[in-house]
């Protein structure tokens, strides 16, 4: 899936970045890797610290280590829902799995990526 990250349209699967000079309508709907259905997906997934299988069949890729005071950068399928989540209770959400399950409940069911600061 292609998302705008730090001003660059970036493929969340293979990390390919399109030129910032391109306008929105010049960015393809699907990256080349998605159209060609390459195995790049699995390579990229293995770089995540945790991969959560969502209830709706999707996956949430988690990056970083959980600290007591971690904030989380949340990237959703719907980019309008992207944001920072800072309300983790480390006693309740101990692991990445707990965090993913909790955010799936309270934040959005289509979180594509989580990253700690
Ligand atoms: Zn790609």
Q: Say how many strands there are.
A: 7
Class derived from helix and strand content: alpha+beta
What is the molecular shape? elongated
List unreliable stretches of 5+ residues.
none
**Helical residues, percent:** 10-25%
Tell me the major beta sheet: 5 strands, mixed
Q: Counting H and I runs of at least 4 residues, what is the number of helices?
A: 3
The largest beta-sheet arranges its strands as 3-4-7-5-6
Mean pLDDT: 88
Would you give an account of this structure?
This protein has 117 residues and is α+β, with helices and mostly antiparallel strands. Helices cover 19% and strands 26% of the residues. The chain contains three helices and seven strands, in the order E-E-H-H-E-E-E-E-H-E. The strands form two sheets. Strands 3-4-7-5-6 form a five-stranded mixed sheet, with helices on one face. A two-stranded antiparallel ribbon has the order 1-2. The longest helix is centred in the C-terminal third of the chain and has 11 residues, at 96-106. The structure holds zinc ion.
Give the tags.
117 residues; alpha+beta; 5-stranded mixed β-sheet; two-stranded antiparallel ribbon; 3 helices; 26% strand; elongated; binds zinc ion
In short:
With 117 residues, this protein is of the alpha+beta class.
Show the helix and strand layout.
Layout (H helix, E strand, L loop, with lengths): L1 E4 L2 E4 L20 H5 L3 H6 L4 E4 L5 E5 L8 E5 L6 E3 L10 H11 L4 E6 L1
Parallel strand pairs: 4-7
Antiparallel strand pairs: 1-2, 3-4, 5-6, 5-7
The chain binds zinc ion.
